Amino acid sequence: MLKVYNTMDRAKVPFETVREGKVSMYVCGPTTYNYIHIGNARPMVAFDAIRKYLIYKGYEVTYIQNFTDIDDKIIKKALEEGEEPVSLAARYIEEYRKDAESLGVLEADMHPKVSQHMDDIIDMVKTLEAKGYAYNIDGNVYFEVRSFEGYGKLSKRDLDDLKSGARVDVDNEKKDPLDFALWKKAKPGEPAWDSPWGKGRPGWHIECSAMSLKYIGPTFDIHGGGYDLIFPHHENEIAQSEGYTGHTFSNYWLHNGFITVNEEKMSKSVGNFFLVREVLEQFPGEVVRFFLLGTHYRSPLDFSDSKLKEDQKALGKLQKTWNRMNTADLAENDNVDERWKTYRDKMEEAMDDDFNTALTLGILFDLAKEVNRALDAQNTDTLVGARDLFKDFAIDIMGIVQEEPVEDQVDDALASQLMELLLEMRKNAKKDKNYALADQIRDGLKPLGITIEDTREGSVWKVEK
Predict the structure, then answer these.
(1) In angstroms, rounded to a whole number, what is the distance separating the alpha carbons of residues 396 and 402?
(2) pTM recorded for the entire structure
(3) Domain that residue 293 falls in
(4) 173 lies in a domain?
(5) What is the CATH number for 289?
(6) Are residues 270 and 320 in the same domain?
């Protein structure tokens, strides 16, 4: 039986869908004002694997992920670059799609954009106001938190404690500091839409509610996102959505853990902020996926180049196993080997336990060893079952192995080690003032399509594409 950790319950609970055989999922997407960073990539990959496992289980999955293309950060970046906010957001949406494809993330069934759902958002705010959950002050419409019984049930926070908390916006015109904006009055130079309260734009929280309710509401199965969204974003979504419909908003709340760098939170100010685009210049998308899925999605994950290099070596072994098995002459017969059924049962058991991809990968490596022993012994009579199992989990669900034979990724890992050795030799040559050798190393790599850039933090290399 599939069990998931529901943040609302703070426990693993049996998974039962609203409609038999169908799963509806809404996962909060990015605010598109820049390239995505490695922290954005974690929910993308984690919920992609969850979605694919549910499909493997036989569910018909409807997967919705929004694009927030109207937001304070977008407006600020657009002003800095002299571009229209919606145009800037559209540009970065396309960049997101490129990174998602590189990471093997399946396209959502629908990617609704805030800018295309203004009528839905305005209608929802109007209804909340008519029901007494919202109030208008000079063109700004706020949700009155104390009007919704049960506010704080997801984050397990008490209203009185929240009132004195540091994360609540202070605004003197609101009835209560806890109240949050549903509609913001237009400011000079900002994009704005006509509404019953005058020109303005939506608040952040109402956007996800309007789009999820439009496509899979009023009650759907899974709402996903990062742990940092539990409060206030998801808490506010629940209040306004359930106030609007009178029904439970989402039955299961799944949240992925943070990514740290050397055990510190990623931050531009401390210089440990990594864009996915930059990471993909050094490592294939499958390696990044393998790294992200190698830790349970709810656990914290520490990012480092050294870990990615280790993962690249390990993944190369899985790819090599698949290449060997996929190119071997396997006999298609009725012989059934119970070993492969046992491995399948173990992997399904791991994934049924709140989508434990880390444990599943460990079992996959055990399977690879068993397969290699059979191949070495030329005992291929019953390997069809192993091949099918490998494809289901390593390729279709985890997305870490390429189906078509590829060059051995162990060689890629070795190339990275050799480059690090060359960079160290060049560093020592410059230290010894042997600039001729340093230049020889740099210039000798250029015809191979490899460039070296000297930065304040040291020399880095990349392959020109």
Answers:
(1) 10
(2) 0.86
(3) 18-112+257-303
(4) no
(5) 3.40.50.620
(6) no
Helix (H) or strand (E) holding 121: helix 118-130
Strand 220-226 to strand 22-27: parallel, antiparallel, or no bridges (unpaired)? parallel
Same domain, yes or no: 334 and 298: no
Alpha-carbon span 290 to 394, nearest angstrom: 10
**Tokens, residue 362:** 């460990």
The domain tally of the chain equals: 3
d(CA 331, CA 261): 48
Neighbours of 97 (CB within 10 A): 14
Mind spelling out the 3-state secondary structure of 163-201?
HCCCCCCCCCCCCCCCCEEEEEECCCCCCCECCCCCCEE
Residues 276 and 316 in one domain: no
Categorize the per-residue pLDDT at 406 as very low, low, confident or very high, splitting at 50, 70 and 90: low
* Domain annotation covers residue 46: yes
Residue 141 maps to a domain: no
Half-sphere exposure of 437 (CA within 13 A, CB side): 13
For residues 34 and 23, give the distance between their C-alpha atoms in angstroms, rounded to a whole number. 31
Split at pLDDT 50, 70, 90, the class of 457 is low
Please give the pLDDT value at position 164.
55
**Residue 390 has which token pair?**
């490998």
Tens digits of residue pLDDT in 329-388? 887 765 668 899 999 999 999 999 999 999 999 999 999 999 999 999 988 888 999 999
The torsion defined by the Cα of 415, 417, 422 and 428, in degrees rounded to 10, comes to: 180
Query: Do 125 and 134 contact (CB within 8 A), yes or no?
Result: yes
Final residue belonging to a domain, choices 241, 275, 303 = 303
Residue 210 belongs to a domain: no
